[in-house]
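Page 42, continued from yesterday. The earlier attempt failed because a stray header line got pasted into the input along with the sequence. Redoing it now with the clean sequence only.
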Amino acid sequence: MSLRTAGSVLVVFLWSVTVVLGQNGWSVTYTTQSICTLKVSTVEMSCSIRYPSGKVTTTLWFTKVYDVDNYVSLLDDPDYKGRVTYREDEENGHTLTITDLRERHSATYMFRFITDQTRGKYFGSPGVTLSVTDLQVKVTTTWWSMTLTCSTTCTLTGNPTYTWYRNSKIVQGASSSSSYSVYFKTDDSFYCAVKGINSPAVCECD
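This time it went through. Structure tokens are written below.
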């Protein structure tokens, strides 16, 4: 029996959880505090801001701070080149999109903004924790059966559903269970896919 995994594409949209952090009229409201998603996938993080007066002149999402007031915008970070975009709406909403994720992009993401007022600078902490994991297939065998399980190092966000293929034909579809059992030996190939993923993890059973 051999195992191999392929890339995956999954877009995660999160809007249900509100986290408000702020003081003296300043705040950043994140839609969630943690996300677990798959390698090679696309993720969106969103927040809204509040401030007492003035006009916003600078906005940025960041993961790195090198010194006081030296925040590295993801748009300028070589690790994210060609992968990130920002979007702002009319109600002070700010959305970060990262494509083609890698495990090295697992980090805490925070939003910072600057206004035209004196000392008008603020960032929201603790931010959003992103965990990027790979999709693997684990096999548990007994003398009479074999159980295949789609496995990740963290619990995927968004209540994913799993589909199992046997020789490219669906044998278990749209299930909340990440496991599939086979009750006899076989040389067939089995494929596990999470909803929205183009290239599933593959288990070839000899």
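Notes: The chain has no helices and 20 strands.
Reminder to self: strip header lines before submitting.
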